[in-house]
Design goal:
Elements: H1 18-30, H2 34-48, E1 52-56, H3 66-74, H4 79-85, H5 90-93, H6 95-100, E2 107-110, H7 124-135, E3 140-148, E4 152-160, H8 164-192, H9 200-204, H10 208-218, H11 223-230, H12 234-247, H13 253-262
Antiparallel strand pairs: 1-4, 2-3, 3-4
Helix pairs in contact: 1-2, 1-8, 4-7, 10-11, 10-12, 10-13, 11-12
Length: 269
Amino acid sequence: MVAGKAVRKPQEQGGIDHMALGAALAALGQATGAASADAALGQLSALITMPRAIWTPDVASPLSVSAAESFMRRQGWPAEIISALGEGGISLRMPLNIRCRFEHLPFAISLYDDHRRHRAPYSGEQKRVAEMMRAEGFNAVLVVPVRLPFARVAMLGFAGPQTLEEAEEIIADAAPHLLAAGHMFAALQDRLAKRARPRPEDRAALTRREWDCLSLAAQGFREAEIAERSGIRPTTVRYHLDNVVAKLGARTRAHAVAIAAQLGLVETR
């Protein structure tokens, strides 16, 4: 915790105002641009007493995104922190980004080693970023992972002076609102970026035989095995799978299976 400062939790003031949270969410849902979205997130940040937001459109991508960097600047993050997160894929190795790739619900992380609950201590570039964030007066980050189409996972976070335990109490009180905020903000960012979403025609483009062959290929079956199970010739299987590759705009069959899985067209297990 920041030396000499006691954090006054929302719970100590009678709990988080859920009606006010609902109003902030309504404003976020009605936002049409960066300014109105930032204002709504500012209301939400104030209500949970975690004053500075973080946004990443895809925690598994090493590429910097100008819209995310602009958002961080508007939130008041120093240039050195924004730059550090964009250097050499550091963000991919940060604990909060790693956990986002495996979590579905909001969680909190500590910026201090002694609260990391038997996890390895921060080191190297991660330690440098954590120290810079602590120098801003923050002890914990509340993280909202957002599952998106095409196998993306975005992250909306809030940094604050709370301990890890206090941040987890906020999650326990406001998790549904936080999840809704994450999805609303992600949807707006995708609209502003004009990012394509899965289309109904992607699901209807394949014939029944192409579907059958693709589904079996996704399960790991080879041409001859698919032919045996489908009652057709291996050359016909090859013809159908080549059509699938072309229709999905893929480069290879493996790429086609990956695209189909991201679109929710096949089950790969």
